[in-house]
Amino acid sequence: MRDGSLKIYRNLDPRMSVSEFEQISEDLQSSCALCLFSGKKSLLLSRDQFQMISQVCQDLGFCLELLSKSKGCAFAKEVCASRNSEWPALLSKVRMGLRNRKKGIRCRLCGTCSELAGLKSLKFSSRELYFALRPHVVPSGLVSLGSPEYSIPPYCIYMLRRPGRLVYIPVLSALSVEERIRSFRLIRKIRAHEEKCLKPPFSIELGKVIEERRAILREFSRLSAPAENFTLYSSVGLADILPLLIDDNVGEFYADSPRTFAYVDHRELGRCESAVWVGPGVIERLLAFSASSSGRTSDYLNPSIKASIKTKEFHARVSIDAPPLSFEGTSIDVRKFFRNPTDFGILIRNKTIPPEAASYLIMKLRAGSSFSIYGESGSGKTTLAIALDLETPPHWRKYSVESDIAENITQRHLGKHQVRLLAATGSGGAAEKRREVLDSLLHKSPDYVFFGEVLSESDSQALFQILASGIRCIHTVHAPSGEGLLKRFAYQHHIPLLSLSDLGVLVQMRRFDIGGNFARKVVRISEIVRDELPVEIPPLRDLFVWDAASGQLEPTPAYREMSIPAQGV
Predict the structure, then answer these.
(1) What is the residue range of 275's domain?
(2) Low-confidence ranges of the chain (pLDDT < 50)
């Protein structure tokens, strides 16, 4: 689409009267693919939706012309008196009048109603038209879109570049109005089938619900994959955020409260505003599916939920804070795990880590070193940990132990031996069960362990017990610096100073804010200086350090002087 494909109507609403619509209906140029109605809210319509509204208004204009000739008809008088009302209200009056006539209400049999009943617009129900013609709410001040940046069928993704920020705008462009009406009818069929055939108990986990409805849908009709996904996620009330869920370029998205636009962390473009409107209904459904997935309820005493939601289309960690904890309304944070994980090739291309440092980490991994990856939240710790885990040789036997959120990916399709375990962190029984799972690893002969995130003192105790047993592992942990991490282990989690030397390579991640966009970088790679009888926190020997002047991770003289042993497993 060329720049200028957006036609703007200022101070108008798509629910305008028939007479107002007649004035602009000829104004839409053939080159314009989208229409923006700029009023109290900025509402975006596709050309297809605009044309359907035009057809409805033409039919209503024909109704008014016919009914104005029907003298003495109460129905005709009522409709003609509403001539200047918005077209949805006028359409409702016409449809209601025709329905009352069919029920036997006495009127003069002039034949007008029979003629009106044949109009195409009147054959669609109000709900069907609302579903198909519902406009897309966009931020105010939109004046241009340009060409789509890329497409995620059935959406085209536009990136509006404003001073100091980017706006992510998904437009449902690949489905016509007729296809949307067909989707609505299929959704009603699916729900009717469930009411008739489903017997309790049944699951309300999102992934299972989607697959059950997919099977039912395919009994009724065969749709294209984009249309099928739109229908299925519309049936569960998540169509508004569907582009954010299925777009692999969106790593994380947020809504601070209901009735706000989401904002996103884009894989390539960093932090962006968006034109995805998050209403209360979307949040309520997301909360319900998260509660089902986590096995926990959200109520006054438990206002926070963290859950892993996985479907065929996406896998995400959902964090929700509800009132009274979040007093401005429920807030959501959805972090997605990429179906195509980030490997070292991608990390090098996006300058997260330079090639020399990446080669060093891979060589240390295959030489049998453990890795502690630390940094602030959202700095890319898990992304780097998974990239390292992907570099392990295929003959290694690996265990992945994580909390109630599975962040690592399955690697069986890569020909690797991997067992994935979920052991929730927490207190009481959950902590004891997690400790038992971690202790059991000592008897399962793993070559490597992906430990996930170390959160509590119990996790730290189990981590160092694993390391002391000679089992190598990769883990992530929140810490501001390498020295701060060692102090946390020693003084807060009561790890003996001698045990700190069991740690292998320490890698620090940091998130940089560059012109409103976030870049994630490796800023430090170090190892512990081992002492046989340490009396204090052991020092760190830096091998790579971030140079602020050059904006690069630079090797240190200590790295240049060292040699890396070539050991195998």
Answers:
(1) 167-336
(2) 1-4, 565-569
